[in-house]
Amino acid sequence: MPECLFCKIAKGELPSFTIYEDERTLAFLDINPVNPGHTLVIPKAHATNIFDISADDWAAVCETVRAIAGPIERALGASGVNLMMNNRETAGQVIDHPHVHIIPRQKGDGLHLWPQHQYADGEAASVQANILHEVQKTA
Length: 139
Prior knowledge:
32% helix
């Protein structure tokens, strides 16, 4: 896609602080990091999000994330990492190209996880049934 920022980075048309690259994926520092070392892993082939990325590209992205998360954690002296992917605008996706965030963490770094809530009586079973129905339609 000609106007995609991440496609331009993958093609070398825009600069990046590259961490890792192979035939299918590219990992580079986020220019607006949550914490130092915050890295994005993308497929080189364009897609929009988790819903249209090819299975092979998704597998390659996941393997790159797995392979570099440990070195990122060690290099930053972090005591953990968060892995995150936003899909579609409502979920916080800003660039329409699949990307997984690797965010090095330190105790007391100020990054808080999202709030959690309990299901109302019967709600979990209803949600489960709806999801199972949709999963069965795609199986």
